Amino acid sequence: MELTHTRLLVDNYKECFFFYRDVLGFEVSWGDENSNYADFTFNGAKLGIFERKQMTKAIGEIYSATIDQTDKTALIFKVPNVDEKYQELKDKVKFITEPAEQKDWGIKVAHFRDPAGSLLEIYENI
Known about the structure:
By secondary structure, this protein is α+β, with helices and mostly antiparallel strands. The protein has one domain (2-125): 2,3-Dihydroxybiphenyl 1,2-Dioxygenase, domain 1 (Roll). It is built from 3 helices and 8 strands. The protein has an 8-stranded mixed beta sheet with strand order 2-3-4-1-5-8-7-6. The two termini are 17 Å apart.
């Protein structure tokens, strides 16, 4: 697995987009202020921001802006084949979602948590 970036899950997407682009000066490599997802590059690293409401929907959880225990960060790992990695890990971790194509994003994904409850995503480009 290759850790490709950290993704911040935010309730105030536009405000965060402008903060990372205009205040910190990070280069936008994907997305814009209206896309609800963006990738930024800086010093060889990549940071993603994603509207938290959409992430909770993707993993089948209930969204609430007032719940403090919901995900705020996700670690994103690129794998050569999501189905194969899923089979390799399914007896070791409890998956939240099974491998599924996200055609709007051009990826296949599956989600699980680490022992501390952190959200992890494996993906491949389709």
